[in-house]
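Annex B. Sample input.
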Amino acid sequence: MPVINSIAAFQEEMTAWRQDLHAHPELSMHEARTAGVVQAKLAAFGVDEIMTGMAGHGVVGVIRAGSSDRAIGLRADMDALPLQEETGLPHASRNPGVMHACGHDGHTTMLLGAAKYLAETRNFDGTVYLIFQPAEEFESGADKMVKDGLFQRCPMERVFGLHNWPEMPAGTFLWRTGPIMAAVAFFDIVVTGTGSHGAAPHRGIDPVVISAQIINALQTIVSRSIEPIEGGVVSVGSIKGGEAYNILPERVAMKGTARWFKPKVGQQIEAGVHRLAEGIAASFGATAEVRFEHHAPATLNDADATMLAVDAARSVAGNQGVAEMPAPTMGGEDFAYMLNVKQGAYLMLGGGRGKNDALLHHPKYDFNDAILPVGASWWATLVERQLAKAG
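Annex B, continued. Sample output.
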């Protein structure tokens, strides 16, 4: 069975929803408008119940059919990134410095499309929980929802997630069992020295030079401290200090991220960041303050749940449109917190248009609206197959 015809029939409507969300992006824990749009759509579709306020702006729509006590959860994320959009599109972000550069606008729209279809047809026996999660990019919204009682208030057998993947052709599905995405941490390093005139560096302790030494040394954590067959990444994404050409600042602040799969590797990376930053700063007579914050564990797919997800994907895209990922990605996903509690799986949906596509987290990225019916059909097929009517 290809894309569900009745879902394909309202692709234009879904596209309008998605582009509206894209034009009004909101950062983690600030998704008030987005949550309001989701609630309004769910109410218009006639879902049976709408839960709000979970983990701040989290929304859960509930659709029931038949008499079975079986239930599954479908999860989409809603937040955007702190990035200035450069697409120049008519629906580009109207919020300066905030952009849907990861496709969460598309994820939300696909789940809304499935909600519209499921609420109309109710061709299943059981309960569907439509989970619209805040704060995936930062603040670990999935963890917050779990701690707010998501699975107690919404008892379900399994939970499923989906992410667009512009590196693969549009409409193709990618899967793998076990680890599919890496654990994620963010770190801050503040180096404090002594400011001085740029013409008299000997009178100060230059935190700029010290920070450069620290950045170079951090790359040795993975290359020289981690066993080569293990995966690990340490990247510095921001460095700020000083304002003038000829003044050496007192402080330099760095921000970065670390990724890994095995907890032991994460421990080694965290210890290495502290050891190198603090030790190098001290060797120059400066100090380094390090904050290392864990964002999400590795995303681990359950084998049985993955096969159920793959079965639904093949139903929508055909055998030729579904492939196993040869290796996990170092990208991270806080859906891992839900998979730590419930059986479930996370798949990728190709959204590529061509070889010159901007990839995720790029200021010129835009979700491919052509795959909206594909994702919505996958969600709906998951429900209809796992909560199939008897007979």
